[in-house]
Write a structure and sequence with these properties.
The protein is mainly alpha-helical. 73% of the residues lie in helices and 0% in strands. It is globular. It starts with 13 loop residues before the first helix and ends with a helix. This is Holin.
Length: 94
């Protein structure tokens, strides 16, 4: 199952927008990490409604683009951590 098969082309622009918003929220000290996905969900649904009008499809699209954004962030984070761990292991072996 590929989540991108379910996101309409019109809503794809929201993924990088939400990603940048998430990075900005992460850099603030006042917002706790656990709040960020919820804030992104509200923004994603709101932006999707603004793009496509108020209907069930736009709400679903908002949830999907938020999910894709958070999933992308986790992939980047996990890949970066694994890469750094691999570099440290190689460095220690020498």
């Amino acid at each position: 199952m590929n989540i991108m098969d379910y996101i309409v082309e019109q809503a794809l622009i929201l993924i990088p927008v939400l990603y940048v918003l998430g990075v900005m929220l992460k850099s603030t000290q006042k917002i706790k990490d656990w709040c960020i996905p919820w804030i992104l969900l509200i923004c994603g649904v709101g932006a999707s409604i603004a793009l496509m009008g108020f209907n069930i499809n736009s709400i679903i699209q908002g949830v999907l683009v938020t999910g894709a954004t958070v999933y992308t962030n986790q992939l980047i984070k996990q890949t970066t951590i694994k890469s750094k761990e691999g570099e440290n292991i190689e460095y220690k072996e020498h």
